[in-house]
């Protein structure tokens, strides 16, 4: 039977927990409670609570699971229903509110507005559900606004926060939510999902899942876009070809260009669709000049898109660094004789050559340089400078 949980993979324990919570009825019989208490987490297994925190590594499906849980709660059915699922997917359900950001951080004004609206009574169901994607992007002052709400929440409002780990949130917030930790899905699970969802071949699905290191969203992009696969391949080959300082400088510029191309591929189509929708909603025909009175709204849209493009570029650079980590992990696996653990098998002899040009200690130093570059970029060091410094350390005679 197809349910709201059907397209989630590798999270059986978390799904069982959320299904039980969505179907929990206060005053249910003890036998019914025991029958649904088979999931993993601390505390009463099947009971509902007003605030949840879903944590897990990138690509583990945090937000997908949050929306599936929201669908189950809003429909009043542990397995959801098609009508509610369609409304949640369109973000148009009257009792669903989503707090997210296209920028680097979630603004405190947006948190305050979300908190204000959280006091509205549900329109059509038992609950009003608020999902906070990337809750780790809230600065401390914004987190404190949310904290006050979690201390004294409205009776029928449910908060679902998503973050990579509990450590990304204030301890005071962690103490007021029920945490559910997701695991990294296996390559086989992700490949099976890609075959079922996207209709790609089993071979391509396995390669995409392996190269994405089980990151579901990235695996889908690699499985469905030859351009994305080509950009990833060029990234790895560019790093392997660094021999001199000048090579490193040119390679850094090329990696920035690849990240830009990747970010543009993600945002360009969405930006065009948003602009077209906005113009249509304002009654402006294609090709018609924008009246002065409406230019402010178009300017606001363009500003939002610029912020999203900046974040998308940063995310693209981070994906490059993750791919480079997988590359040099493969190198050290080969140096240690673990040929069965290689991720980037398609590089073949290039990996063998890289493994022969350095020692395991040097490869570990390279992996450390990648980690340092990520920290520097997070600390707002100019990405191209962080990449240059990293790539200089990649040089091998």
From TrEMBL:
Please report the name of this protein according to its UniProt entry.
Answer: DNA polymerase-3 subunit delta
Question: Which GO terms are recorded in the biological process aspect for this UniProt protein?
Answer: DNA-templated DNA replication
Q: Where is this region: Disordered?
A: 33-55
Q: Which InterPro entries does UniProt cross-reference here?
A: DNA_Rep/Repair_Clamp_Loader (IPR050238), P-loop_NTPase (IPR027417)
Transmembrane region(s): none
Q: What organism is listed for this UniProt entry?
A: Microterricola gilva
Q: Where is the composition biased (Polar residues)?
A: 43-52
């Amino acid at each position: 039977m197809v349910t709201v949980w059907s397209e989630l993979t590798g999270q059986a324990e978390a799904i069982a927990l959320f299904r039980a919570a969505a179907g929990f009825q206060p005053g249910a019989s003890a036998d019914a409670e025991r029958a649904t208490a088979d999931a993993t987490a601390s505390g009463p297994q099947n009971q509902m609570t007003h605030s949840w925190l879903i944590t897990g590594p990138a690509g583990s499906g945090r937000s997908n699971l949050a929306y599936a849980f929201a669908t189950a709660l809003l429909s009043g059915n542990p397995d959801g229903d098609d009508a509610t699922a369609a409304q949640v997917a369109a973000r148009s359900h009257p009792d669903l509110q989503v707090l997210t950001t296209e920028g680097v951080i979630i603004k405190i004004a947006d948190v305050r507005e979300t908190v204000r609206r959280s006091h509205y009574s549900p329109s059509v169901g038992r609950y009003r559900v608020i999902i906070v994607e990337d809750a780790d992007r809230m600065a401390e002052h914004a987190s404190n606004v949310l904290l006050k709400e979690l201390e004294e929440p409205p009776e029928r409002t449910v908060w679902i926060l998503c973050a990579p780990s509990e450590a990304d949130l204030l301890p005071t917030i962690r103490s007021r939510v029920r945490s559910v930790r997701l695991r990294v899905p296996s390559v086989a699970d992700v490949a099976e999902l890609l075959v079922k969802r996207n209709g790609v071949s089993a071979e391509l699905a396995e390669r995409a899942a392996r190269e994405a290191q089980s990151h579901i969203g990235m695996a889908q992009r690699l499985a469905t876009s030859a351009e994305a696969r080509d950009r990833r391949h060029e990234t790895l080959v560019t790093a392997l070809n660094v021999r001199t300082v000048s090579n490193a400088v040119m390679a850094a510029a090329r990696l920035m260009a690849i990240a830009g191309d990747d970010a543009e591929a993600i945002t360009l189509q969405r930006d065009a669709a948003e602009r077209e929708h906005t113009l249509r909603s304002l009654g402006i025909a294609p090709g018609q000049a924008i009246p002065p009175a409406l230019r402010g709204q178009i300017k606001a849209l363009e500003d939002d898109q610029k912020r999203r493009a900046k974040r998308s570029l940063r995310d693209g650079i981070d994906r490059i660094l993750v791919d480079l980590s997988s590359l040099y992990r493969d190198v050290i696996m080969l140096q240690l004789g673990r040929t069965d653990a290689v991720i980037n098998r398609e590089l073949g002899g290039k990996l063998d050559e890289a493994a022969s040009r350095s020692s395991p200690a040097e490869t570990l130093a390279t992996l450390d340089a990648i980690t340092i570059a990520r920290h520097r970029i997070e600390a707002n060091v100019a990405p191209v400078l962080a990449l240059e410094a990293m790539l200089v350390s990649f040089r091998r005679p």
